[in-house]
Amino acid sequence: MQTLRLGTRGSPLALTQAGLVRDALVAAHPGLSVEIVVIRTTGDRVQDRPLAEIGGKALWTKELDRALLAGEIDCAVHSMKDVETVRPAEIAIVAMLPRADVRDRLVGAVSIEALPPGARIGTSSPRRAAQVRSLRPDLSPVLFRGNVDTRLARLAAGEAEATLLAAAGLERLGRDDVGVAIPTTVMLPAPAQGAVGIECRAADEDATRLLAAIDDPQTHACVRAERALLAALVADCHSPVAALARIEGGVLTIDATLYAEDGSESVSAQQAGAPEDVGVSQALAAKLLELAPPAIRQLFAG
Ligand SMILES: NCc1[nH]cc(CCC(=O)O)c1CC(=O)O
Question: Mind telling me which PANTHER family this protein's record contains (predicted)?
């Protein structure tokens, strides 16, 4: 019997997502054995500082990349939202599970408008901080890191009046009773939010074939377009950028908003085209940068 070693981070959400991938693989390939291998990452170790300070990039992927390239695992599961835009050439993103709810959930109030004046919002996301301040300049973002349970505990301990969490993570942890979903028209999500991706070594034909069977092409095309936008903006998961693609009638439409860090300014645009055409995202990036005031433009495109 063939065994596939599936690398993952060790957080409760990562382990749940790895379980979903294993179940999908076993359903697609009866007789395949999938071994889940937990790899500890820098992002999991250091929880008390903003991500950008710890060295910024590759916090969640570096150790998994190393294990993959060293042959200790055959594939790696990631929340696509946390995967850097530029990946090593030897590693290929082969498959994505069907996307979960892409929205953010507000925990602590029924809506952003309902929050008391000056309320503290626990988040470590520059996007969420800018978005709440663009909606309510009186609100004050405070640094909140750690996994979902840690953040909810810090909220319960009174360290903030509210926090924002991805609906996808809450749902996968069976916590969809927590908070209220904010419509994407009010708060556009992070690029790739709600998508779980699986990578393998680009040269590994066996793993590529096994993983291809569980790929959701619609999710993959939308997330590819959102990531191509980040690449064209020279942005990453620490940039105040929101983007969401959808496919309807064979046409991919992508919406995006760039923010000034304090949320005082923002610029939004939309672009549509063929799902496989990265030119759609590149055209959108060009449009956004052209419309952006200097305070926003300086944050992007290098
Ligand atoms: N950066 C942390 C992170 N990465 C992926 C998710 C949730 C799951 C997802 O968006 O796919 C979260 C937590 C959150 O934003 O609430």
Answer: PORPHOBILINOGEN DEAMINASE (PTHR11557)
pTM of the predicted model as reported, rounded to 2 decimal places: 0.94
Substitution site in 46, 193, 226, 236 for ligand 1 pocket (most atoms within 8 Å of beta carbon)? 193
Active site residue 206: no
Ligand 1: which residues within 6 Å by Cβ?
79, 81-82, 165-166, 168-169, 193-195
Q: Which fold has domain 3-98+195-215?
A: D-Maltodextrin-Binding Protein; domain 2 (3.40.190)
Q: Tens of pLDDT along 247-284?
A: 999 999 999 999 999 999 999 999 999 999 999 999 99
Band of pLDDT at residue 34, cut at 50, 70 and 90:
very high
Choices 3.40.190.10, 1.20.1250.20, 3.10.105.10, 3.30.420.10: CATH for 104-181: 3.40.190.10
Residue 84 · residue 51 · CB < 8 Å:
no
Q: How far is it, in rounded angstroms, from Cα 299 to Cα 260? A: 8
Neighbours of 117 (CB within 10 A): 7
Inter-axis angle of helices 217-233 and 279-291, nearest 10: 40
Strand order across the 241-248 sheet: 241-248, 251-259, 266-273
Is the domain covering 231-297 a CATH 3.30.160.40 domain?
Answer: yes
- Compute φ and ψ for 185, nearest 5 degrees: -75, -20
